[in-house]
Fold each of these.
Amino acid sequence: MTTDTAVPSFPLGRGKRRKNLTLLTASTAMDNAESSVVTVLFPLMREAMGLTSSALGTIVAVGKVVGMVSGIPWVLLARRYPRKVVLATCSGFWGIWVIAAGLSTSFTQFVLLYAIAAAGFAGAGPIALEILGDIYGDSRRGGATGLLYGGVALIAGVSAPLFGLLAGSADGWRYGYMASGTICLVVGLLVLVLLDDPGPAGGGTRPALDAVERRARSLRSGLRELLATGTFRLILVQRLCSGQNVIMSFGVVFLVEERGFSTATASIVALPFALGYLAGTVLGGRVNDRVHRLRPRSGRIVMLQSSQLAFAAVAFVTTQVAWGGGIAVYAVLFALLGLLQGQVPVVNRPLIMAVVRPELRALAFAVSVTTVEALAYAGYALLVGHLGDTIGLQKALLAVTVLLTTANGLASAALYRPYARDRAATAEPRPGGPGRPRPSSP
């Protein structure tokens, strides 16, 4: 059995890696913290502004669509200027717009300011993932990605019930936004001062391929190479057909509208979801790395399919069965949903890292995460919001989080053959010698 021994592009000491990972997690979490305010306190916004469920879909969709457009420009800025400066700006200092959104006086004004804020946060994910991919080798990226997304989920899960406490005030949603924006500013300052990033030229630790580096700076050539990779194309299709993410965007509203809980009580499920997500990312990342080492040609695809099909089954039980026993039963079910949802990034992100050259990873994540995933998220958020107004959120979630996820999990089998081929063709430096050159086409 072949063992992957690829080393990181920028080797750093364990202490510095942990510090970097903590800062990358905090910067990535800012977008999720802002989303928590919307999902948890939307019932208050609905009452204050006379909105319907479709308005929540509009808010989520606008944020994702704007992020879809703005992600790549942030990545290009990070190629020209120091990455930590760009990351601190888009994930931290951009929080001023979150504060402004909390001060808005109409729904239209709120959506506009929310969109501007989302345009900044969209750059954090791809840049953070590029840095993570540079400091961890292939055999450890599942665990590292798990820690990052687990930390993001934990921050969102802890903040959601805290925001839920603001439901006692009619202006609670405003206070939530102002608090979230202030935290963003603090995180931006910490990233700017404390993040260790040697930059793309990192003292010769990357392969000395000057011609390749020049070509990677070209957006057109970079996109052409990415789309020529069969695995990457299929991952884009797979993410485009993923409706899992809307479960927490509408989860609290679902429990309020369909199960009769108060906003403060319903918001409790965000914490067990986050804890489940944390377990799914941290433990799932480690399991994913182990399965990958045992079955390097197919292990990650097996993990991806298993998590999707299991998620669809638990989503059915959660949304289609009216459980007695108060919020405790739903807390357990949402914890299971979080556990299974946490499997997705620890498989999906290392999959991309394994088939894309280091120079193009930030662009790959800008395309896959902030563009395609954002487009899917926006579309399904609008769809669930519209269906929620017409046929109810229970049936809407059945269609998107259960049936679509089941079909997507089965269709993911198409990744097995191209992933094995593209992974073998991707060059990464290995101890004792250079990696194999990647062919120009798969």
Note: The chain is about 75% helix and 0% strand.
Amino acid sequence: MDSTFVKYAFTALIALAIPATPAAAVEQNCRFIQAKPDREACYKRQEEELAAKRRPAAPAGDGQTLETLRQMRQEDEAVYRSINNICRGC
């Protein structure tokens, strides 16, 4: 085999393995805690962290969204008025 190919393959393997290890390490830390209350607290912390990551981000500006919707509605009404004024079949 070509040594250049082996170097690139090894580098790609390392690059793919590095991001996966912290998540697995965090998950395994709780398993090895001997005291039951501490282990349960660890699991609870992990659950809260996962819930926080899965929670959708809060909307940035509700006032801005409402203003945008109001402006779009006004523009739509103007388009509908202009369409109704078109003579069809004249």
Note: The mean pLDDT is 77.
Amino acid sequence: MGTVINLRQARKRKQRADKAAQAAENRARFGRTKAERATQAKEDDRQSGVLKGAFRESSQDNVE
């Protein structure tokens, strides 16, 4: 005869493994360090400043 396994425990073990695999995938996809987020925020601020500096107001905004 084969080994006896508890199906409830096997099901829970599989669910834990699936959750761990999903968590690892999410960390790889979305995880960034604090330094990376800060660098990105600085770059976004710089780019928005460049865009604001290059913006020209339309003549319709000045008509009263």
Note: The chain has a mean pLDDT of 88.
